[in-house]
Amino acid sequence: MATEVKVPALGESITSGIIAAWNVKDGDYVQKDQVLYELETDKITSEGLAEVAGVISLSAEEGDEVEIGAIIASIDESAEAPAGGKAPAAAPAAEEPAPAAAEVPAEQSDAISPAVRRIAAEENIDPATVTGTGKGGRVTKGDMLKAEPTNRMPAAEPAKPATPAPVKPAAAAVPAGERTTRKRMTPLRAKIAERLVSAQQEAAMLTTFNEADMSAIKKLRAQYQDSFVKKHGIKLGFMSLFVKAVVNALQEVPGLNAQIDGNEIVQNHFYDIGIAVSTPKGLMVPVVRNCDQLSLAEIEQEIINYATKAREGKIGIDDLSGGVFTITNGGIFGSMLSTPILNAPQSGILGMHTIQDRPVAVNGQVEIRPMMYLAVSYDHRIVDGKEAVTFLVKVKQALEDPARLLLGV
Questions:
Q1: Distance from the CA of 32 to the CA of which of 130, 339, 353, 389 falls in 20 to 30 A?
Q2: 380 and 245 in one domain?
Q3: What is the SS3 assignment for 401?
């Protein structure tokens, strides 16, 4: 009896994906819930698990674009499991040297993803000693990245002295003699490009700027950081304060908490704020829900959770849907000033930038203060310049005088 392996439905708007990697080979014996493949779509990357145990037969290759519901493999349940439940290995023709210290033991290799095996090899960490947080206790890439030194593999026995081998040069990024290289655009990157161009073509986008003195925020964090960490187990960052400042400003200027739907203006009365994050696969904007009802600690925890999911490639469709406003922080990369692009169909996006000590006039005196440029891009079709400027001033005031957030003024 053979069980078909089909591409699962991942969301109403997702119709196809690309098989980024097969974690098994044709003819391998697979266990139930074992990770078979990684599927990359225009929104997320997901893993496909085996529904049953048996010998797998692949009918699609890495790099193939497959439709939702397509059959990409089959598993023969009637096939008997080899000794130990693993795929039979070919007998070696001659005695082989012992594996290097950083190699993953053979009995584990089919239960972990290529990313975990790579980190195990590069960082010399034994996956067997790492507590897995994935399905069924499986060790994930994030688990390996957070592994402590105590999880490192024991060093291999020293070999007999020999003439040192010549150091191999690092692999060239571009093949010798090649002037250009080509690679297929991933669905996620293609979708990002499409959305950015669409936002510029469809919205009457305009950007207004201001600057904020971050002295009060930095003093607040320094004064209460230890107590905050002791009580909540996480650090107080800048982003939660910016989220609260944005919510306060949206409540004062509701025009930026609206969007166009055909010939209608939809006014939102909730505060789900998107936080733009850069991942190896592209820009994503997970949404922190009901920010008006969350404490600073709860917002910080949500951001940490999303950062972990982004690092492990586990952000889902629901995580990215339904935001009313977006915050993006180019300052972490050193950006001093930028004009952020709207995240359609939203009508506003706030750009944070790097904090720099600059001379400013304070009560008639020149002082050195930590200053940040702020930028808000908005859809001029439904947001007037007065509203946008007022919104940004409200954000600036909340950051420069955090007591406003407590008092709601």
A1: 130
A2: yes
A3: coil
Domain coverage including residue 151 = 97-155
- Global pTM? 0.64
Please report, in angstroms and rounded to a whole number, the separation of the first and last CA atoms in the chain.
68
Q: For residue 324, what is the DSSP state?
A: S
Helix (H, G, I), strand (E, B) or coil at 118: helix
Q: How far apart are CA 45 and CA 19, in angstroms?
A: 10
Q: Rounded to whole angstroms, what are the CA distances from 125 to 102, 138, 376, 399?
A: 7, 15, 44, 43
Contact 274, 285 (CB under 8 A): yes
Pairing of strands 71-76, 54-58: antiparallel
- Active centre residues (catalytic): 380, 384
**Angstrom distance (rounded) from CA 227 to CA 317:** 36
Q: Consecutive sets of 10 residues in the chain, 409 residues long: mean pLDDT of each?
A: 84 75 89 87 78 90 85 86 54 42 44 66 71 70 63 47 49 68 75 77 91 95 94 93 96 94 93 87 85 95 88 79 93 91 92 95 94 96 95 96 80
Asked whether residue 229 falls in the same domain as residue 354, the answer is yes
Chosen domain end from 108, 130, 155: 155
In a domain, 181, yes or no: no
The tokens of 256 are what? 């930026």
pLDDT digits (tens, 9 = 90+) for 228-276: 999 999 999 999 999 999 999 999 999 999 999 989 999 999 999 999 8
The dihedrals phi and psi of 325, each to the nearest 5 degrees, come to -160, 150
**How many residues does this entry show for the chain?**
409
Q: Which amino acid is at 266?
A: V
Is residue 310 domain-shared with residue 383, that is, in the same domain?
Answer: yes
Structure-token pair, residue 383 = 């947001």
* Residue 169 in tokens: 């040069």
Residues 149 and 201: their CA atoms lie apart, in Å, by 51
Structural domain count, the chain: 3
Q: CB of 268 within 8 A of CB of 324?
A: yes
Q: Classify residue 344 by burial, with Cβ atoms within 10 Å: 0-12, 13-18, 19+.
A: middle
3-class state of residue 392 by DSSP = helix
User: Tokens representing 270?
Assistant: 């909730």
**Residue 396 to residue 232: CA distance in whole angstroms:** 27
CA–CA separation, 149 and 154 (whole Å): 11
Domain boundary among 65, 88, 111: 88
